[in-house]
Write a structure and sequence with these properties.
Blueprint lengths: L1 H6 L7 H28 L12 H14 L7 H5 L4 H6 L1 H20 L4 E4 L13 E3 L9 E6 L1 E4 L2 E4 L1 E5 L4
Parallel strand pairs: 2-6
Antiparallel strand pairs: 1-4, 3-6, 4-5
Length: 171
């Protein structure tokens, strides 16, 4: 009887919401650990390292954009990191693992049946919005936002994982 009553209410959390909590934890772990490590390993073998941003953080942002802007496909990681041929070979195992984990997160989120998205929207130079953003671990949260390092994870307009951003002085 309770199940029948709660099915008719859309303001209560469901099992799908619990699934999204788990997906958010797995996503955050993937971004902060495996993808950050992959971005760091890509710095010396990338053909496009910017001098105006910390290279590892910039590459991490490019990597998360390749994996979470749209469902990821083979080749996107290598292209996003601008890897040369030896870099592709050297990082092949890590790239395959990152692609597989991102695809699994997309599949899990889709199977819940709830609308979700990874939030890349950012106004460079704005203050952090604590309801949806946090400074990356090594960044000063009092400085303005500059660049999305890891997108937020949003389900039905509810933030399950804050967006992680690079902060720095405005120019």
């Amino acid at each position: 009887m309770l199940a029948a009553q709660t099915r008719q209410r859309d303001d209560l959390p469901s099992n799908a919401h619990a699934d999204h909590e788990s997906i958010a934890r797995d996503y955050q772990s993937l971004a902060e650990h495996h993808l950050a490590t992959l971005a760091q390993a890509a710095v010396p073998v990338s053909r496009s390292r910017p001098t105006y941003r910390p290279a590892q953080l910039w590459l991490l942002g490019e990597l998360t954009r390749a994996l979470f802007k749209d469902p990821p496909t083979v080749g996107l990681i290598e292209d996003s990191l601008s890897l040369n041929k030896s870099g592709r070979a050297r990082l092949a195992t890590n790239i395959e693992r990152a692609l597989s984990q991102a695809q699994t997160l997309w599949q899990r989120a889709t199977r819940t049946g709830l609308p979700f998205r990874w939030d890349f929207s950012l106004l460079p130079g704005a203050k952090l919005d604590p309801a949806r953003q946090a400074a990356w671990l090594s960044c000063d949260p009092s400085l303005p936002t500059q660049y999305v390092i890891a997108p937020g994870y949003i389900v039905e307009q509810q933030v399950f994982c804050l967006q992680r951003v690079l902060t720095g002085p405005s120019f």
